[in-house]
Amino acid sequence: MNKAALRKTLLQTRQSISIQEWQTKSLQLCEHLRSSPLFTQAQTILAYFSIRQEPDLSALFHLNKTWGFSRCVGKELIWHCWSPNALPLQTGALGIPEPCPNSPRIPPETVDLILVPAIACDAQGYRLGYGGGFYDRLLSSPLWSAKPTIGIVFEFARLPQLPRDAWDQPLHAVCTEAGFVWAN
User: Fold this and answer.
1) Residues with Cβ < 8 Å from 159, sequence gap 6 or more?
2) Which of 46, 153, 174, 177 could be stapled to 28 by a disulfide with Cβ–Cβ 3.0 to 4.6 Å?
3) Which architecture, in CATH terms, is 3-182?
4) Alpha-helix runs per DSSP H in 18-144
């Protein structure tokens, strides 16, 4: 199955999950993430705000970490600090909640961990995203390529192997409601 067909099928499956099941699975995923060594050692973590029933990480945002969230500017992700007490979020060009543009920016050298949203991840750490290439461009950049990364998906979307292109960047690990798994 090609990326477009797989993306469509997996998005339909994810969006068919009941709200209660989505919340339960998200909380289970957060507990596994919270006990992972990459997470416990990290002080500055880049994350995302859930859209289209992606796993919801908001149960973690009260923890004593510096949280960064992206703004889409052109074809790049620009990272800003955010906390539950911060200025209200705004809706970005792609319909994704974003911090205000005047929120403090997060320099790459301070980042300890990136939690990467995905439609699917495979055993080798490759991810299927929405097709915009934002994370592949970010993770191929010398400023970001060595940062530890964890793909965040529900267990049904953790597959043995995904179709991939030359520009796809592998992640270090994957976390689902069933547990934390290092990429092969």
Assistant:
1) 120, 121, 122, 123
2) 177
3) 3-Layer(aba) Sandwich (3.40)
4) 19-34, 37-41, 134-140
